[in-house]
Amino acid sequence: MQASRTPDERFQDLDNFPYQPNYHEIDNGEGGKLRMHYVNEGPKDAPIIFCIHGQPTWSYSFRKMIPPLTAAGYRVIAPDIVGFGRSDKPTQRSDYTFARHVQWMHDFVRGMNLNNITLVAQDWGGPITLRIVAADPDRFARVVVTNTGLADARGIPDEMAAKLRQLLDDTPVLNTQETNAAMREDLMERGSFQEQTQNASNDKDPTPPFMYWIKHCDASDDFNPGAMMSLWLNSCSAEEQRAYAAPFPAEEYLQGARQFPSLIPLFPDDVEVPANRKAWEALRTFDKPFLTAFTDGDPGSTDIQFQEEVPGAKGQKHVTIKDAMHYTQEDQGEEFARVVIEFIKANP
User: Does the annotation count 296 as an active-site position?
Assistant: First the structure.
C-alpha cells in the first residue's frame, strides 16, 4: 500500500490551532504501517473524551471544543482518520473501505490502550466508531453522537438495489456550487440519507440530494474540501478555509476524501450491510449512557433511531443544538462542549 504524507509546512500557523502533533503507527492491513495523527490535550491521567471527525474535515474541526473540555479537567484525544488531516493518505481509492476504516481506528484505540472513553462522534466518526463500540464495548463509558448514523439499508427491498445503483450511475457530476445548491434543496424535508434512499426506492424522490454529493466527491474536477466547508459552515474565514484545504495539496492526497461518500452502505446489496446490522444488534444491548446532540440545521432523523433502539439512550436529556448546520463542533463548538460536560457530570 502506497501512502502520501502531507508536508508539515501546510499546517503551519493555522488559525486557533496551536496544538503540537502526536503520532501513532497502526497496521495498514497489508503488512505495512500507517501513521495516524492525533491531538492530545489536557491532563494525561484525566478521563478521556475521544473526538472523531467526519468528511471532509479533520481534528482541526474540534478546536473550539478542546479549551472548554480540557479546562473542565478532561483529556481530549482527537485523531485524524486515515486519509485526512496529518494522518497518512493511501493513494489508491481501492485502499479505502468501510471495514478498513473501522480496523484502522480500532487498532488506534487498542494500540493507545484507551479505556473509560467518552466518545464524541460526528458524521463518518459515527459509523466508524459505533462499529468499534459494538465490538469492544468495555472500552467505552459513554457515547455522544451528533449528525451521524449507522446505515444498514433497513426498509429497502433487496430487489430495489439494482434500480438504486442505476439511479446513482445516472446522477450527473456537478461542480461545487451546483452540488451545494442540489444538496440544500428541500434539505430538511427530505430527511436522512437512508430516508432519501427509501423514498427513491418508492419513486417518491427520483434523485436523492446525497447522490449529488457522492458523484461530486467521486468525480468532480473542482472537488475542494476547503471550498465546500466554506459553504457548509455558519461562518468560515479565509484562514479557516485554508486549514480545511491544508491536508490536500494535490489530487493524490484526496483519495480518502473522495471515497468516503461512496462507502455509505445504503443499498441492500452493499458488502457492509451485514456488519452494520450486526453492530445494531450489539447496540441494542448497549446500556451505558448514550446521548444524541443533533442540530436544528441538519436532517437529523436518525437521532430518534438511536433514542428508540439503544438502551443507554433511555431517560437521557437528549438535546437539539440551535443555529448549527451539519458540523456541530464548528458552528456551535462551545455549546456542544457544554452539552458534553453536563452529560458526563450527569452520568458519572
Answer: no
